[in-house]
């Protein structure tokens, strides 16, 4: 599977970007990565490593948080996209599902999904059809289609956000922490859907995730980000086998998985304190 | 290298909580104090006293009051003007009923009245939030101004409906009324404002300040960690209105000399709000910066055409003035939404790491 | 503490239906269940943010009267939140100091004057707070505004704020969401240490089964407002209802 | 007691024609308040911006219309040109003010609109001067006569102008409601109000929507300006009537079109009744300056989001 | 050589509509003097404007800014006048507030530095009552007093209340709030309910236009509506045009296109391109009033120059001048102000002059005179002036009084 993707052309290339917030806080210190067409690429790393920032830099959402890309280039299908506004990028087929769900609280679930189709100009019928498609992926959403999104549970909101992204018929979805706060069953379910969409609709994914375990099971390739730098990259299998990854991201040492209760020493490398 | 904090270690929590933990800041403050207490009074002209020094201090105080409510406790109020009015009318009644009363005492007392009324109008804040609350405070604004107009007891039944500050003598000098010299009034204002500033700083850096800030940032969480929201909001209203009331009394007694009800109109509220916001919500020093900008700017703008000998009529100047002030407000909001105070902090951060960019 | 026949409704929606369970002094009690099961709502009831439509809460054997959330907090209940609820405009230190508010009592006047009582109280409480800060190893970010912190640290600051109140009952709502394994290990360590050292009773909501199974003494499982399981971790893990409703594929 | 509580009602019954007139006047001013409030609501919905400049936009639109006409432009062409000016204004505001301030706290954007207000006052006075101007009512073909009815042998005067205003306002509101609820753009506007970032991320262009919304607010401003101008002349003093829209919003709910209408009517009618039957006889008059605010405040105590506002979602 | 006679003008804000023609008239007259005669007595006039926007706050700022060199201050609003009144006493600068300000200012003994020539608000009220009385008696009639809820609007109340008792009419005060100026339907509903015989209006700025349109709408008989001189602005009436015919306003100034002074202004100012005014405005009552106001000030300067034998008079010398104006018929002719202002003279104790005035009526297109020169019944309120002036002095003790002047 990974080999299949590896052969494909690079869809999205990020070259050595730097991001500064508020004119003073340097967050990304030269990040480069490549997303191949039809693949699932995972972006891993601890808290504050800069995953969200990278995704936002790609989809040009940094502006409203007083952040800016000060160096480097971002290419989508070989074309520079840094100057495009997010809407234009969505038209090109790149859409982001933001961290923390971000549903439109006061709109109903169905209205939320329909806003996803905002940039499309291919008529009502096609949109209706896609709505049905989303409902087949997420039957739960169909049940709750008429309720205000603000009152649905966390998992439902996450589904709603992913479904909404699918409604724009994207080529690439930037998915930020889809598993956060979800029940284990749901996590699996959502990743299954990601895989289904990837294989069925040919959508490429760039996936920022904390849950390394699951992410590496579903992704084809991965990057590990620490303190704003890429420290490791490779295919999912190679990462999974890497002893450092095993120890620090999968919680396994030589003796296998250890109980949380038995961890006696703080092993943190104090990355963020540096 | 001038502004370097490295090497200034704190060895006790007490020292860490000092007002100016950084030496350079303390020096800067010293300079400002010398300027305001000695140099300005010695050199300022009558015009400077009346159009810059005194109003800047008074407006800064009013903004400080508002800032406690809006910047610290997060309750947006558009009724500041009316609360200044309450302070002014209370002071007027105190002085006319008890002519022997020391004017400074009367000014400090009059804040108590506006505090009371502030609390009464603050009660809805327990249920109403955000812009709804802001509009609700307009009810106070319009109702109180209407009351100043209709309740003739407040202005001692003067035919004109205005209040006029009588001449008041204390310790052998005229401190209020037309006979008072600007420099005397300046010192009275300075003393009161300095006192209030110190009190405000103390309140906002201690327990109460934290209670307010918690309420502001997330009231639900604040309540869940044990903050009594009612107490927190109402003390904010009380203290804010007290300070605003005192500034209102100063406004009329130490500066304007007379007042009619619509002086305390919504325009005044907006002015004070501008100062607080341009200066920086949630800061004490910012209010001074804001007041300097909002009060000083039109004065400077007005003198510009004459200085350059431009043949522009005064009306055009005024129109341009309004435009420029409007544009500047937008400009400052864009460059630093958190106000001049934050701008200063950023400069400081840059200075600390200077000459490195990050 | 004991929850008896709690039911909670929002308009027509029944979020919690007739649930009873107890929390023993000094234990770590986990609540798990699928999203929207009503776990957070249950925590909200304990901390007084929601009032149960039916049922009662017994605290140390006596029924707890209806209380405002801040009154509950003053009885020694502290909590963290699912969607971080820090005071974004304040520094870490100030945030943690707010945790001490229930212990600080100097009056407005003395605060306005500062020197004297207020300052002494401030310094005394600061010491306690510094201990918590040391404990959670967040010394270096003491003076940073929390708005700028990454998610994981925010969670830790939230825990610090809760700990600063020196609670007898600590409610943790998904303290490890959005963390990687290494960070979870640290967090687990802190939770265990709090429980060991201060004997604090802890109620924990968490979706990471590894964590829940390893840390907790007993687990309540909820599904759509109903209780479907209660007992020690191993027992719960084997319960078929729980597997169907929540765990899905058997974990690991 | 009797005087305050019973007597006013006796008066109402004794002079029903007068009561009708009071109600009608209240209704018409209510509609006009509602029109201003509509502009607010639209902008608030799409951006959470509390647009204080709506009042000055009314003045600005009316002045432009009258000014263009005074320069010899035929009335209807002047209307078109004014609409174009309002469009340019919308574009300018979006470019210069809103775009750099995306994502800032509400209060900052609110302040920025006050900045816009000041700027427009200055600009307007430089361009148009401060004199009171006459609205070109007849040139626009708005009827100006009146119906004099004599119910119960009394007198009831209905201005054609007022009737026109009521009809136009109703149509406008209907159109707006349909637009917001049933169109793609409408949905996008509502989405934007909930979450900027998320809206951006699904490809809703802030720029387009904001220009659109401010332009619609400009159109509403022009209609309001014509209506008020025809009643009281066009001058900067009109700006103060914008304050009346605030309690209307508060009563109706900041994000509700229906709320703006119902709130406007309620306030228009109730404040008139209160002023005529209680304010003037007992309180020295002029209670209209605050009545609406106090009424809204009382309603808010029971419904903090206003009568039709969106429920504030409070969860932790 | 220059005389600094600043004007605290307002060409902006909600009252700009009425301010602009007045300021234009004032400025054009001074500009004409400079162009035609090289100023007064050889000294050029520096008639600088300081913009107040009718805001008291700005007004005080302007006063402080100009007071250093100014020989007179013209505050142009009752609010500003009240505020600077006590200050001028200390700073010793005369206030010139023609036709407005604080009515007791007429008492020159108490208000040494204040002048409200040629007539004050109590004069206006007295003349209006006199005129209405002449229309068929006031006994048993009802007068609605529609006024701005502001110090200005309340000025005539003490006199009107007093006269109501004496003349046997009922007075119904109806205030209009500053925010209600544009929307007076409540006030006019009240008028409809009260059914008064007359409406006397003390309005300003946008309030006038609002009141007049409402009056037309509610079909109040226009001929029974009388305004003070500030409510007689042509532009306000043009909004209703012919429907406003019959509306009256008392005035101590009147436009006379044929007066020599108008010709001089045309040649020296308008044709030279130095006027901000236009033809339509120049034909109006307010523009002519501006001219008269400047003419009064110029006359006072001239008198003072003659008395002190110097062209560059100072503030206290101008004060003497203002106290010794004698605008006789002959002098008015000489100044080229034919028919534009009634004759009057001031004295040490009489700072108003009580010139009297004409009743003007809107004929659908312009104002015309419909009465002979009326003059106020000074005895009616001479006592009131003294009483209120004394009250003011007491409240502001120590308040220096000019004991030297008698009668
Ligand atoms: N608006 C902002 N202003 C200033 N600093 C910010 C801002 N947003 C993020 N940062 C900082 O940038 C760094 C990277 O944050 P980012 O959100 O990209 O991390 P992340 O890898 O997504 O972490 P997490 O797993 O917690 O979501 C953090 O240190 C954070 O404090
Ligand atoms: N304030 C509220 N108003 C209406 N419904 C609510 C409210 N709070 C919670 N609910 C509903 O109650 C149910 C339970 O919500 P709760 O937040 O307790 O779930 P949870 O178990 O914590 O889920 P998650 O694991 O996703 O956090 C949900 O269906 C939710 O929509
Ligand atoms: Mg992230
Ligand atoms: Mg939850």
UniProtKB/TrEMBL annotation, chain A:
The answer to whether keyword Glycoprotein applies is no
Q: Which domain of life is it from?
A: Bacteria
Q: Which organism is it from?
A: Litorisediminicola beolgyonensis
Q: Do you know which Pfam families this protein is assigned to?
A: ABC_tran (PF00005)
Alphabetized PANTHER family for the sequence: ABC TRANSPORTER SUBSTRATE-BINDING PROTEIN, HIGH-AFFINITY BRANCHED-CHAIN AMINO ACID TRANSPORT ATP-BINDING PROTEIN LIVF
Do you know which CDD domains this protein is assigned to?
A: ABC_TM1139_LivF_branched
What is the name of the protein in this document? ABC transporter ATP-binding protein
Protein family (similarity comment):
Belongs to the ABC transporter superfamily.
Every ABC transporter domain range: 12-252
Alphabetized, the UniProt keywords read: Amino-acid transport, ATP-binding, Nucleotide-binding, Transport
UniProtKB/TrEMBL annotation, chain B:
List where in the cell it is found.
Cell membrane
The transmembrane residues are 20-40, 52-69, 76-98, 104-123, 130-148, 184-203, 234-255, 261-281, 288-308, 320-340
Q: Which keywords fit this entry according to its UniProt record?
A: Cell membrane, Membrane, Transmembrane, Transmembrane helix
Q: Which domain of life is it from?
A: Bacteria
Membrane topology note:
Multi-pass membrane protein
Record bears the keyword Transmembrane:
yes
Task: Please state what the protein is called.
Answer: Branched-chain amino acid ABC transporter permease
Natural source organism? Litorisediminicola beolgyonensis
TrEMBL record, chain C:
Report domain ABC transporter positions: 1-249
User: Per its UniProt entry, which superkingdom is the organism in?
Assistant: Bacteria
Q: Which InterPro entries match?
A: AAA+_ATPase, ABC_AA/LPS_Transport, ABC_transporter-like_ATP-bd, BCA_ABC_TP_C, P-loop_NTPase
Listed GO MF terms: ATP binding
Q: Which UniProt keywords apply?
A: ATP-binding, Nucleotide-binding, Transport
Q: Name one Pfam family in it.
A: BCA_ABC_TP_C
Family matches, as PANTHER family: ABC TRANSPORTER ATP-BINDING PROTEIN, CONSERVED COMPONENT OF ABC TRANSPORTER FOR NATURAL AMINO ACIDS-RELATED
Q: What is this protein called?
A: ABC transporter ATP-binding protein
Species whose genome carries this gene: Litorisediminicola beolgyonensis
TrEMBL record, chain D:
Give the InterPro entries listed for this entry. Answer: ABC_transp_permease (IPR001851), BCAA_transport_permease (IPR052157)
Q: How does it sit in the membrane?
A: Multi-pass membrane protein
List localization entries. Answer: Cell membrane
- Say yes or no: keyword Transcription regulation present: no
Q: Keyword Transmembrane helix: yes or no?
A: yes
Chief subcellular location: membrane
**Recorded superkingdom:** Bacteria
Q: Which residues cross the membrane?
A: 22-44, 51-70, 76-98, 107-128, 157-180, 209-228, 248-270, 282-302
Instruction: Extract the Pfam families matched here.
Output: BPD_transp_2
Of which family is this protein a member?
Belongs to the binding-protein-dependent transport system permease family. LivHM subfamily.
Q: Which PANTHER family match?
A: ABC TRANSPORTER PERMEASE PROTEIN, BRANCHED-CHAIN AMINO ACID TRANSPORT SYSTEM PERMEASE PROTEIN LIVH
What is the official name of this protein in its record? Branched-chain amino acid ABC transporter permease
């Amino acid at each position: 599977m990974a080999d299949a993707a590896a052969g494909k052309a690079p869809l999205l290339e990020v070259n050595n970007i730097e991001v500064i917030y508020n004119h003073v806080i340097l967050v990304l210190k030269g990040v480069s990565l490549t997303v191949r067409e039809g693949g699932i690429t995972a972006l891993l790393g601890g808290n504050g490593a800069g995953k969200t920032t990278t995704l936002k830099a790609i989809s040009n959402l940094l502006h409203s948080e007083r952040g800016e890309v000060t160096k480097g280039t971002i290419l989508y299908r070989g074309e520079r996209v840094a100057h495009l506004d997010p809407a234009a990028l969505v038209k090109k087929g790149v859409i982001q599902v933001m961290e923390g769900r971000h549903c439109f609280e006061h709109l109903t679930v169905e209205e939320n999904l329909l806003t996803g189709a905002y940039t499309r100009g291919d008529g009502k019928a096609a949109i209706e059809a896609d709505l049905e498609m989303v409902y087949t992926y997420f039957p739960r959403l169909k049940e709750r289609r008429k309720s205000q999104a603000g009152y649905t549970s966390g998992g439902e909101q996450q589904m709603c956000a992913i479904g909404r992204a699918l409604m724009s018929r994207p080529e690439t979805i930037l998915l930020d922490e889809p598993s956060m706060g979800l029940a284990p069953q749901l996590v699996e379910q959502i990743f299954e859907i990601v895989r289904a969409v990837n294989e069925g609709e040919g959508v490429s994914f760039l996936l920022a995730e904390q849950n390394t375990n699951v992410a590496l099971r579903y992704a084809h390739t991965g990057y590990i980000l620490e303190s704003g730098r890429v420290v490791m990259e490779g295919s999912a299998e190679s990462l999974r086998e890497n002893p450092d990854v095993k120890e620090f991201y999968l919680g396994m040492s030589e003796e296998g998985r250890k109980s949380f209760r038995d961890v006696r020493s703080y092993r943190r490398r104090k990355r963020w304190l540096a | 290298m001038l502004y370097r904090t490295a090497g200034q270690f704190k060895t006790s929590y007490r020292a860490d909580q000092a007002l100016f933990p950084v030496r350079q800041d303390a020096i800067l403050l010293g300079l400002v104090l010398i300027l305001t207490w000695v140099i300005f009074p010695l050199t300022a002209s009558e015009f400077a006293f009346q159009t810059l020094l005194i109003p800047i201090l008074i407006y800064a105080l009013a903004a400080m009051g508002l800032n406690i409510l809006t910047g610290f406790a997060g309750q947006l109020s558009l009724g500041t003007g009316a609360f200044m009015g309450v302070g002014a009318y209370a002071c007027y009644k105190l002085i006319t009923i008890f002519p022997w009363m020391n004017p400074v005492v009367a000014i400090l007392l009059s804040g108590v009245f506006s505090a009371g009324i502030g609390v009464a109008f603050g009660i809805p804040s327990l249920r109403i939030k955000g812009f709804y609350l802001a509009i609700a405070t307009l009810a106070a604004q319009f109702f109180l101004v209407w009351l100043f107009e209709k309740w003739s007891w407040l202005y001692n039944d003067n035919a004109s409906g205005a209040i006029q500050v009588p001449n008041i003598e204390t310790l052998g000098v005229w401190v209020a009324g037309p006979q008072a010299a600007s420099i005397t009034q300046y010192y009275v204002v300075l003393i009161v404002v300095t006192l209030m500033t110190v009190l405000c700083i103390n309140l906002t850096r201690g327990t109460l300040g934290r209670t307010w800030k918690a309420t502001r940032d997330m009231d639900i969480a604040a309540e869940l960690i044990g903050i009594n929201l009612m107490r927190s909001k109402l003390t904010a209203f009380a203290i804010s209105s007290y300070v605003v009331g005192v500034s209102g009394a100063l406004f009329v007694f130490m500066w304007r000399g007379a007042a009619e009800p619509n002086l305390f109109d919504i325009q005044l509220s907006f002015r004070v709000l501008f100062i607080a916001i341009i200066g920086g919500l949630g800061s004490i020093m910012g209010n001074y910066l804001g007041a300097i900008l909002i009060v000083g700017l039109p004065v400077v703008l007005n003198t510009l055409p004459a200085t350059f000998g431009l043949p522009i009529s005064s009306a055009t100047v005024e129109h341009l003035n309004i435009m420029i002030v409007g544009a500047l407000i937008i400009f400052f909001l864009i460059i630093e939404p958190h106000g001049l105070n934050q701008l200063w902090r950023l400069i400081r951060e840059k200075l600390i790491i200077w000459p490195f960019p990050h | 503490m004991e929850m008896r026949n709690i039911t909670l409704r929002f308009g027509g929606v029944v979020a919690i239906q007739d649930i009873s369970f107890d929390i023993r002094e000094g234990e770590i009690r986990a609540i798990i269940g699928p999203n929207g099961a009503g776990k957070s709502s249950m925590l909200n009831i304990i901390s007084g943010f929601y009032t149960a439509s039916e049922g009662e809460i017994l605290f140390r054997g006596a029924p707890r009267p209806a209380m405002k959330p801040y009154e509950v907090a003053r009885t020694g209940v502290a909590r963290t939140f699912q969607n971080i609820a820090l005071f974004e405009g304040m520094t870490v230190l100030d945030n943690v100091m707010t945790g001490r508010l229930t212990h600080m009592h100097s009056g407005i006047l003395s605060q306005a004057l500062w020197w004297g009582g207020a300052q002494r109280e401030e310094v005394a409480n600061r010491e306690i707070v510094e201990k918590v800060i040391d404990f959670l190893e967040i010394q270096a970010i003491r003076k940073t505004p929390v708005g700028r912190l990454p998610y994981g640290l925010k969670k830790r600051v939230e825990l610090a704020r809760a700990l600063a109140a020196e609670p007898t009952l600590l409610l943790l709502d998904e303290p490890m969401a959005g963390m990687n394994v290494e960070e979870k290990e640290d967090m687990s360590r802190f939770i265990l240490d709090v429980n060991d050292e201060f004997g604090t009773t802890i109620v924990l909501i968490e979706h990471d089964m590894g964590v829940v199974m390893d840390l907790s003494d007993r687990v309540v499982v909820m599904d759509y407002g109903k209780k479907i399981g209660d007992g020690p971790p191993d027992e719960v893990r084997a319960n078929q209802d729980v597997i169907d409703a929540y765990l899905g594929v058997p974990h690991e | 007691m009797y005087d305050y509580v019973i007597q006013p009602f006796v008066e109402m019954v004794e002079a029903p024609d007068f009561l009708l007139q009071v109600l009608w006047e209240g209704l018409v001013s209510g509609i006009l308040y509602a029109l201003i409030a509509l502009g607010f609501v639209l902008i608030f919905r799409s951006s959470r911006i509390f647009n204080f400049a709506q009042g000055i936009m009314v003045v600005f639109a009316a002045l432009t219309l009258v000014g263009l006409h005074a320069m010899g432009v035929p009335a209807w062409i002047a209307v078109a040109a004014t609409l174009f000016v309002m469009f340019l204004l919308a574009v300018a505001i979006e470019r210069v003010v809103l775009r750099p301030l995306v994502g800032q706290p509400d209060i900052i954007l609110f302040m920025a609109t006050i900045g816009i207000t000041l700027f427009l006052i200055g600009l307007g006075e430089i361009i148009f001067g401060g004199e009171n101007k006459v609205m070109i009512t007849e040139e626009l073909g708005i009827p100006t006569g009146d119906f004099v009815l004599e119910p119960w042998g009394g007198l009831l005067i209905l201005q054609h102008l007022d009737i026109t205003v009521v009809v136009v306002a109703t149509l406008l509101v209907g159109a707006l409601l349909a637009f917001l609820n049933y169109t793609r753009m409408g949905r996008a506007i509502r989405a934007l109000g909930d979450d900027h970032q998320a809206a951006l991320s699904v490809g809703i262009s802030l720029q387009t929507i904001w220009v659109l919304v401010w332009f619609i607010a400009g159109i509403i401003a022009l209609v309001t300006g014509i209506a008020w101008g025809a009643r009281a002349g066009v001058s900067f003093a009109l700006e103060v009537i914008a304050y009346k829209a605030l309690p209307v919003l508060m009563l109706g709910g900041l994000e509700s079109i229906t709320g703006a209408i119902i709130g406007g009517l309620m306030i228009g009618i109730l404040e008139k009744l209160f002023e005529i039957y209680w304010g003037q006889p007992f309180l020295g008059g002029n209670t209209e300056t605050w009545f609406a605010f106090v009424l809204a405040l009382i309603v808010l105590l029971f419904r903090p989001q206003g009568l039709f506002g969106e429920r504030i979602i409070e969860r932790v | 050589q220059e005389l600094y006679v600043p004007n605290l003008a307002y060409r902006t804000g909600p009252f700009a509509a009425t301010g602009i023609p007045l300021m234009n008239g004032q400025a054009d007259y001074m500009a004409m003097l400079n162009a035609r005669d090289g100023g007064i007595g050889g000294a050029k006039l520096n008639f600088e404007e300081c913009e107040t926007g009718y805001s008291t706050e700005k007004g005080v700022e302007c006063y402080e800014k100009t007071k250093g060199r100014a020989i007179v201050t013209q505050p142009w609003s009752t609010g500003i006048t009240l505020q600077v009144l006590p200050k001028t006493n200390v700073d010793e600068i005369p206030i010139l507030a023609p036709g407005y300000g604080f009515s007791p200012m007429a008492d020159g003994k108490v208000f040494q530095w204040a002048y409200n020539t040629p007539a004050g608000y109590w004069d206006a009220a007295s003349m209006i009552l006199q005129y209405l009385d002449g229309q068929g008696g006031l006994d048993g009639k009802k007068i609605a007093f529609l006024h701005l809820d502001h110090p200005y609007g309340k000025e005539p109340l003490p006199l009107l209340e007093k006269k109501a008792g004496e003349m046997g009419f009922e007075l119904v005060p109806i205030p209009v709030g500053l925010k209600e100026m544009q929307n007076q339907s409540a006030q006019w509903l009240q008028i409809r309910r009260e059914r008064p015989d007359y409406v006397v209006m003390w309005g300003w700025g946008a309030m006038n236009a609002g009141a007049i349109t409402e009056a037309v709408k509610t079909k109040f008989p226009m001929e029974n509506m009388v305004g003070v001189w500030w409510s007689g602005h042509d532009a306000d009436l043009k909004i209703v045009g012919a429907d406003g015919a019959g509306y009256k306003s008392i005035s101590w100034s009147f436009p006379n296109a044929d007066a020599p002074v108008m010709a001089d202004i045309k040649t020296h100012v308008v044709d030279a391109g130095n006027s901000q005014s236009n033809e339509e405005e120049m034909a109006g009552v307010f523009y002519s009033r501006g001219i008269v106001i400047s003419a009064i000030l110029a006359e006072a300067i001239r008198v003072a120059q003659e008395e002190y034998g110097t062209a560059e008079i100072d503030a206290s010398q101008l004060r003497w001048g203002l106290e010794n104006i004698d605008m006789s018929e002959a002098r008015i002719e000489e100044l080229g102000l034919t028919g534009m202002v009634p004759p009057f003279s001031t004295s040490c104790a009489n700072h108003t002059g009580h010139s009297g005035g004409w009743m003007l009526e809107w004929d659908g297109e312009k104002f015309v005179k419909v009465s002979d020169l009326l003059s106020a019944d000074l005895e009616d309120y001479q006592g009131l002036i003294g009483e209120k002036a004394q009250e003011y002095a007491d409240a502001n003790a120590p308040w220096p009084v000019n004991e030297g002047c008698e009668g």
